[in-house]
Structure formats: C-alpha cells, structure tokens
Write a structure and sequence with these properties.
111 residues; alpha+beta; five-stranded mixed β-sheet; 41% helix
C-alpha cells in the first residue's frame, strides 16, 4: 500500500508531505496506481520549483519513499502559490485514493 502523510500547521498550511510504499496493483512497470501517485507528487514538486522559485527540501529513498518539506518562505505571494499547488496535488491524490482505496491511504497530521 502507498501511504501518504500530509503535515499541516494548526492554521491548515501544508508544511510537508511523505509518500512511502508500493501499491502492488499490477506488475512493476504496469502499476498505474504507483505511476499516478508518482506523476502527481513529482509534478507538484517540479511546479513549485519552476513557478515559485521555492526550493523544497527533498529526501528520496527505497520503496517509493519521498519526503518534501517546505523551507520558510518570506514572499507571501510565493507562499500562497506553493499552497495552491500542494492543495491541487492533494485533490488529485484523493481522487486516486477514492478510486483505488485498497492501494492508497492519505493521512493528515497537525504539526
């Protein structure tokens, strides 16, 4: 199962997210659930970098591990854009969770 944890502040701002595991929906190279989660999450991170010039702190590892943490962002407009991009990512991931809930689980934690 792919586990996605979104870390939010008390105010609701996304501070980081972690993705780990594999869906095991299909054979390696044919797993549309893993491919979808990867495309959405990496697309969001790439969009943050390209469109806001914010450089998230990224850690990658084995077994589908991705951790993305936002640095302190002084520019409030850029911070707002980053949040919109991340909220869009979450909406897309929730769509996958809704359709493939046996393979994907999203949890939100307050930090």
């Amino acid at each position: 199962m792919i586990r996605i944890t979104v870390h939010r502040t008390v105010e609701g701002t996304i501070r980081s997210f972690t993705i780990s595991g594999h869906a095991h929906f299909a054979k390696r190279g044919q797993d549309i659930v893993c491919a979808g989660v990867s495309a959405i999450s990496f697309g969001a991170v790439n969009a943050i970098i390209a469109l806001t010039n914010v450089k998230p702190i990224i850690q990658q590892g084995k077994d589908g591990y991705l951790h993305c943490e936002l640095p302190s962002i002084e520019d409030t407009k850029a911070a707002d854009h980053v949040q919109i991009l991340l909220e869009g990512m979450i909406v897309s991931l929730q769509t996958i969770e809704r359709d493939y809930g046996k393979y994907v689980k999203i949890t939100t934690k307050t930090v």
